[in-house]
Specification:
Elements lengths: L2 H4 L5 H21 L15 H12 L7 E6 L7 H15 L4 E6 L15 E8 L3 H14 L8 E5 L1 H35 L2 H25 L9 H31 L2 H28 L7 H32 L1 H4 L12 H11 L1 H16 L7 E2 L11 H12 L8 E5 L5 H12 L4 E5 L16 E7 L8 H16 L3 E3 L1 H35 L2 H27 L4 H4 L7 E2 L2 H29 L4 H31 L4 H33 L8 H10 L19
Parallel strand pairs: 5-10
Antiparallel strand pairs: 1-3, 1-4, 2-3, 6-8, 6-9, 7-8
Helix pairs in contact: 2-7, 2-10, 6-7, 6-8, 6-21, 7-8, 7-10, 8-9, 8-10, 8-21, 9-10, 9-17, 9-20, 12-21, 12-22, 13-18, 13-22, 17-18, 17-20, 18-20, 18-22, 20-21, 20-22, 21-22
Length: 720
């Protein structure tokens, strides 16, 4: 499997020049190609709510306003100057192309458009088109609003404005995260390797991988919908995985060079062992992340695009670029190399022996701790992200805070039902009456202003607007129950329901329909990969189970922190009492894929030790000793990158960054260094059981290391 890579004999300078040329081209693409990535995509485009969302602007735009203009003044909305300004703003807003259904407190006498203290009035409108068109229209709105008296405050809000602000904030925060993470990663690598050249190589690979992947995503964004949030995964996986793989190859090259004293033979041996492990790990992670393509929401699919591309780019750069660098730099990479204790006397070996003295105790205790961490996930509540994902100081967030506190609750419909043209009036009246009897519904009305109403016009679709009782928050469980009841009645009549809660319920339904299949495929891919690596059914099953334990523990911690609001002060976010419905499946696939990286490192070395003749206990001790340093170093680096991303001011990004950081840290420490050796100690020789036909089939594929080169004497500088 590694012969084409190991046989590379092209001039090292030419190979590196090609990589640098691709890097320069990617930088050029990043500057010249407009960014078409979007900040939405959490809805199933085929769901009823998504279909209605595309229609409502032409039916009843006031039912689904996505643009608000808040006008405030000390004199209140009744002040003639404020009223004149409100009317002027309403008129100008209505003239912007793409804006429909403009209504304000000064043009329509609706109490819901006036704050309870009458100091603020609201202008609402609907921006038509997809997210890209809405962003362009929003820019035109900002430029086209007239200047008013300085003592009259004018603020823009609404879902379209929130999405644009989130998009801008993520880009700024991600740049800051990269600037903070890169020097810290370099410092860790300097500590690990003790030499500048060896430390710089993994960072260089990470930077190249991130830039090339971002360029490819920019181009892809003009062909399909790509979420701006995918940039976070590109940075995390691009830097984390590239550094992991480069760490493994640089470490192995230094070992081989120390033993062989010849650059070319050291490169060949490195690719035949560590290179094979990297390629195997990359194929597995790619397959796991590709599972996200099963979901219809482009927000989720974007993580598959970013993940697959960055893994392929990182792996190619590592397996092609690093051997060229090894050939070019040779002995300089070995500078700072520190010989550690033999495998049987290192720190990790001593720790593993402690675990193996009482393996059942450690296995049970660790499992109990992980289950306790996972317990909060049993009370998870799903919701949608809103303006509160922005920091409290953001202007748009402040606008929505005023809307929440000063305006009448339930001013907008909790749901709306699209009624086709030429519908039977009696049937619609019966449906309206039935919806009105749903617990929590107080009124079912036609929209206050139909779009372009004209007497005698051809019949056209309309909408029933469903108003909820005062005090029912749209994102609450009570609100979801109300809309769920409306959906059941409307769908029984063949009609479709729209609105924010309907979108949430449809998204949950899509995840519930596809999620179990996705999890099953991830588990099956992991099992197949680990079985081919170890030729043991028991070892593969155990590894998948302990991976699952670490993931559920991380999900429980996410619920405890973000849903329940613990640590909201130190982490700087506002808890809404729920988490985004797409978060668990993202964390499962991303964290599971990354944890497979650590699992492959340990199990590849464990299998190699076993095949070299070591008994079961010695193989465990040596495998942990020889990979413990790499895994902990890699976990520290990945945690640095993810926590830097998790420091974002956008809470959705914060959840992903901190959530995956927790999962990776728990997996690299508790699972790999405590639970795994403990369980293997309990199982004993049964660890290696497999049906003979399966064992022969796996052996023919020869996935494991060590076939192409004699193993180097272990002198791992990061293992003690």
């Amino acid at each position: 499997m590694t012969k084409p890579v190991a046989a590379q004999r092209g001039p090292a300078r030419t190979v590196l020049a090609v990589i640098l040329a691709l890097f320069a081209a990617a930088l050029t693409v990043g500057v010249l190609v407009p960014d078409a990535r979007l900040a939405g995509g959490a809805a199933d485009p085929a769901a009823d709510s998504a279909v209605v969302a595309r229609q409502i602007g032409g039916i009843a735009p006031q039912a689904d306003p996505n643009l608000f203009v808040l006008v405030s003044a000390p004199g209140g909305v009744d002040d003639p100057r404020v009223a004149a300004a409100g009317k002027l703003l309403t008129e100008r807003l209505g003239t912007v192309d793409g804006v429909v259904g403009t209504v304000s407190a000064w043009t329509v006498p609706l109490p819901a458009l006036i704050s309870q203290d009458r100091r603020s009035g609201l202008i609402i409108a609907h921006i038509q088109g997809d997210e890209g068109a809405q962003d362009r229209t929003l820019t035109a709105v900002r430029a086209g609003l007239p200047q008013v008296d300085p003592d009259i405050g004018v603020r823009i809000g609404g879902p379209a404005a929130v999405r644009a602000e989130v998009q801008s904030t993520i880009k700024t925060d991600l740049l800051l995260a990269e600037l903070v993470a890169m020097p810290l990663v370099l410092l860790v690598l300097l500590w690990v390797f003790g030499g500048v050249v060896a430390a710089v190589l993994p960072v260089a690979v990470g930077v190249i991988s991130i830039v090339i992947t971002n360029a490819l995503l920019l181009v892809l964004g003009h062909a399909v919908d790509v979420s701006v949030f995918s940039q976070n995964l590109t940075t995390a996986v691009g830097l984390g995985l590239a550094v992991d793989y480069a760490l493994l190859l640089v470490r192995r090259f230094r070992e081989e060079f120390r033993v062989r004293g010849d650059t070319e033979s050291a490169v060949t041996a490195t690719l035949a062992t560590a290179g094979r492990t990297v390629l195997f790990s990359a194929v597995t992670i790619t397959a796991v992340l590709a599972v996200l393509l099963l979901f219809p929401m482009y927000f989720v699919r974007s993580f598959a695009y970013a993940g697959v591309i960055v893994v392929v780019v990182s792996t190619t750069t590592v397996l092609v670029g690093l051997p060229a660098a090894f050939r070019l730099l040779g002995p300089r990479i070995v500078q700072g190399f520190r010989k550690s204790d033999p495998a049987e006397r290192g720190y990790w070996a001593a720790w593993t022996r402690v675990v193996l003295r009482r393996p059942a105790v450690f296995a049970v205790a660790t499992t109990v701790v992980l289950l306790c961490l996972a317990a909060p996930f049993a009370s998870v509540k799903y919701g949608t992200v809103d303006d509160r994902q922005l920091p409290p100081g953001a202007d748009i967030r402040a606008t929505h805070d005023v809307l929440r506190t000063d305006f009448q609750a339930g001013a907008l419909p909790i749901a709306y039902v699209v009624v086709p043209a030429n519908s039977d009036p009696a049937r619609i009246m019966a449906l309206s009456a039935a919806i009105g009897r749903v617990d929590g519904v107080v009124a079912v009305n036609p929209p206050p202003l139909q779009a372009d109403p004209r007497s005698g016009a051809t019949p056209r679709p309309s909408a029933l607007l469903v108003a909820a009782a005062k005090g029912i928050e749209p994102t609450s469980q009570r609100g979801q129950d109300v809309v769920s009841g409306v959906q059941r009645l409307a769908r029984a009549d063949g009609l479709q329901v729209g609105g924010g809660i309907a979108t949430l319920l449809d998204t949950e339904a899509a995840i519930g329909r596809i999620g179990p299949l996705a999890v099953a495929i991830v588990a099956l891919v992991a099992f197949a990969a680990l079985f081919l690596l170890t030729e043991s059914v028991v070892l593969a099953v155990v590894s998948v189970i302990v991976n699952g334990l670490s993931l559920t523990a991380a999900l429980g911690a996410i619920v405890w922190i973000f849903q329940d609001g613990h640590l909201s002060g130190p982490l700087g976010f506002t808890s809404t009492g729920s988490i985004d419905s797409t978060l668990p499946i993202l964390v499962v696939c991303i964290a599971f894929g990354l944890s497979m990286d650590y699992g492959v490192f340990v199990l590849a070395r464990l299998t190699e030790e076993r095949r070299s003749g070591a008994d079961h206990r010695t193989a465990i001790v040596n495998a942990i000793q020889r990979t413990g340093g790499i895994i902990t170093s890699a976990a520290i680096i990945l945690a640095i990158v993810l926590i830097a991303i998790g420091a974002s001011r956008v809470s959705a990004t914060k959840m992903i960054g901190i959530g995956v950081a927790l999962a990776a840290t728990v997996d690299a420490t508790v699972v790999r260094l405590i639970l795994t050796p403990a369980v293997l100690g309990v199982l004993g020789s049964a660890t290696w059981w497999s049906p003979e036909p399966l064992r022969r089939w796996a052996a023919r594929l020869a996935v494991h290391d060590g076939a192409a080169a004699a193993p180097a004497v272990e002198v791992a500088e990061v293992s003690s």
